[in-house]
Amino acid sequence: EDPVTIIGAGLAGCEAAWQLLNRGHSVVLYEMKPEKFSPAHRSGSLAELVCSNSLRSNVSDHAAGLLKEEMRRMDSLIMKAADETSVPAGKALAVDRHAFSRVIENRLNSFTNLTIIRKEMIEVPSEGIVIIATGPLTSDGLSHEIARLTDSSYLYFYDAISPIIEGDSIDLEKVFRASRYDSTGQGDYLNCPMEKEEYENFWRELMGAQTVPLRHFEDPKYFDGCLPIEVIASRGISTLVFGPMKPVGILNPKTGKIPYAVIQLRQENREATLFNIVGFQTKLTWPEQRRIFRKIPGLEEAEFARYGSIHRNTFINAPALLEPTLQLKKNEHIFFAGQISGVEGYIESTAMGLIAGLSASAFHRGKAFPPPPPVTAMGALVNHITSAESRNFQPMNINWGLFPALPQKLKKRERGACHALRALTSLDRWKSETLREL
Ligand code: FAD
């Protein structure tokens, strides 16, 4: 049987390899370390955690905890290793990073049908099934190849992410619906109006806010097209009013006037459960974003599904390029997995490795692979990366806003448990129907 080639032995690549090996496939896994290191990787080990040793929440009424529980039920190697090497971290799952990598290497090395080749790949093999899992710091050589295989306008090297707010935490009494130069009182955006004094107070808060320093390999010259909000603000007290807070053409139906400044919220998903703050990409720390952006009229109680950020990140425009099976639309032999497929975070990347492994196994055997239902955390991620609107596509951590709405309205603290129950029931059903076939 032809082996499956996996490029990148990080979290996603190792998980994909494990799922394939367990189903009897042969795998050739390419890893460029220690021949070559990305600017963030330090050790020669497989599945290196490049930064924090925390995999976030471990309780399943939190979206990140649910994703972990689902992966455990799917026999995930990364979850086995994390559980076996966990260190005390309250309700989070944190690991001893060296022991974690060792467990993964040992388990993978026990398979005789796995070949690990330590080499930088700069070409994608034209024969056989290939999973690309080279992560947010994919080497330049391979990035060129991916640009060639996709369409270079669909490959990105930086995230400039605006914060995303949960729709039901927005005070609809204080905001109004309107598009610029649209007098119908409808419009696509929710608008948060500010008068002069409110605006100036907000500007002063921004000026004093704490930011996250850039990493040594992040070059601020990349940001000229999408400057952080605090950098625009630092150029003068009025610059925001001529930039992302420009009020021109936005009439407040309550006053019949154009406000001094406006913050626009753009719908992020079809279900209208998430809204992003347009043009508010930022390097402010998370607590500062929460403190300062909650001063925006209508966002006093805002819940952040994702905080804004700007960081180095290689990823593809998955909704334009991938099938729900994580196969390239233009070439069904090529799969994408991990952070490069358009998710954000350790466990999210792992989950996309798990799905790519299962999907590649099904393809190899000529079988169909229906992805997990969107009410599951894994399915919600696949759904986001393959069916979000491609024009404004941004990678996401798992969060409840990516799930279909619950059938009933519940208090916030009851929502998590309800999502989890629905997801795990659905996952078990999907697993028994789909995996029996694989
Ligand atoms: P990786 O784990 O990066 O694995 C990719 C592998 O591919 C690497 O081993 C790399 O050496 C190899 N590779 C690259 N190019 C080639 C090539 N051409 N040929 C062969 N091999 C190649 N997420 C969190 O949840 N928490 C965090 O604290 C966190 N911190 C981060 C810090 C930084 C600096 C970055 C860049 C990202 C961070 N992330 C974090 C985001 C993300 O979750 C991690 O990067 C995660 O490791 C992604 O998993 P992956 O499997 O997609 O990629």
Q: Major sheet: size, sense and barrel closure?
A: 6 strands, mixed
- Low-pLDDT stretches: none
Oligomer: single chain
The backbone outline, from C-alpha atoms, is globular
Total strands: the figure is: 17
**Unique ligands:** flavin-adenine dinucleotide
What does this structure look like?
Helices cover 31% and strands 17% of the residues. It is α+β, with helices and mostly antiparallel strands and 438 residues long. Helix 2 (63-73) packs parallel to helix 10 (346-364) and helix 3 crosses helix 4 (97-109). The longest helix is centred in the C-terminal third of the chain and has 23 residues, at 412-434. The radius of gyration is 22 Å and the shape is globular. Bound molecules: flavin-adenine dinucleotide (FAD). The site of flavin-adenine dinucleotide has 35 residues, from helix 1, strand 2, helix 5 and helix 10.
Give a brief description.
The chain is built from 12 helices and 17 strands. The chain has 438 residues and is an alpha+beta fold. The two termini are 16 Å apart.
Which features does this protein show?
438 residues; alpha+beta; 6-stranded mixed sheet; 6-stranded antiparallel sheet; 12 helices; 31% helix; globular; binds flavin-adenine dinucleotide
